[in-house]
């Protein structure tokens, strides 16, 4: 038979109410009594009933995360960071993905109602109307890399724009004149900001050089297709800057298949610094996003709101840093423009 709260109370010589208060962290129990109850509960291997505890605390001890996808190293690292922070706080993490539209985001949010104490949202389709219609007003919510105009929601994002500007500046300093860009999917916050950074930095660093943008969707396949297109261009760019590492890696394979040497014939750079980026050949120059930290800090911010702690500001932005590796190697050029 399973051990009940009554068994713990009897063995500890206290009331059932005292056991409940002690195990739920109430201040009305003395430290000595709490310690005795905890020791008895551990010795008896008492497992609290989750449903009963939720009725008492009005908490599910669960937080939700709505992501645009669960595939690839970026989301693996993001979830790892969120999960580690959740476990450190004794919380469970419920992850769901929404792929195609605002209506799918709404379906996921409605499914989470009553099941979570708060929700993290990263989605290009999470507009203000969708959130207002499908999220209870009192539910703690943190947006990650998600643009919602005029939002009162807490948000955490990375400096996509600044990171892209830094990469273009680096490529120019390496001696590259014609810099092409492989863009991410349209209407995506990260992709839009990285494209904006590329355009603005190129206009500043190479004012006579027109932007050269190839469309991608953040997948390796789209990067591969872009790489094939680049290999056929005449004149060919000196460098390719892909809006994420997965596309850069796909582009790398395409360029090598076309008989081009990276960085000897054409330089290459990405964005995110996913774990595999340092192990491809040549190692990939990229903009480092501390992806696991993004997930962990978003979870910490959400947990603070759930616990009733105020936040100093609605929006926070995490810095990126440039990581120069062999793929962007400098090539001397006579500057004729």
From TrEMBL:
CDD domains, per database record: HTH_LacI, PBP1_LacI_sugar_binding-like
SMART domains for this protein: HTH_LACI
An MF annotation (GO) of this entry: DNA binding
Domain HTH lacI-type per the UniProt entry, residue ranges: 3-57
Keyword Nucleotide-binding: no
Keywords: DNA-binding, Repressor, Transcription, Transcription regulation
InterPro entries according to UniProt: HTH_LacI, LacI/GalR-like_sensor, Lambda_DNA-bd_dom_sf, Peripla_BP_I
Transmembrane feature ranges: none
Stored Pfam families: LacI, Peripla_BP_3
Protein name: LacI family DNA-binding transcriptional regulator
